[in-house]
Amino acid sequence: MANNLMNYLPDYYNDVYEMQAIMNAQGDVLDKAEGEQFRLLLNQFVTQTDAKGISVFEDQVGIKPAPSDDLATRQNKVLMRLLPPRPITIWYLRDLFATLKIPATITVEHDKRDAIVEAKSAEIDSSQIDNIKYLLNIYLPANMIYEIRVALNKAKISSDIKIGIGMWSKATTAAQANVSQFVN
To answer: What is the pTM of this model?
Structure first.
């Protein structure tokens, strides 16, 4: 019990059973209230919420979570909607990817007005790719395009030739025809 109220009792209550029972019961209630207060405090911050707290944020910004979304994905979707406006720079987008734990790198080819996002298929999943698409659609200027390049895992190709030996058989039969029945 975190809140041991017995420590706050005066000495003359040490041998009073009723007062000890009251303090133990009140300590349990105080523990539950403190836990609920701490949960409410954490639910004020998107990255610290539980499932009940994130649903409040989703309702506020109008997000309908998919049944397959886990808590971290739901938190990232809410964060992307609530981000404060900042100047859009490549450094800001890199920091944003790091904050949202998106394992991808972004580069910009200024002469082509092209933003290129590169990731490895073993490190990124489809929900993170959806987050990247959302961010780039919101933050990139209208005259820029973007490419998302996902490198596939390396596969080893061997040039060995497999040769097998098998048996093939053929059975033929021949029957003599009775030619005496043919008339010329």
So the answer is: 0.53
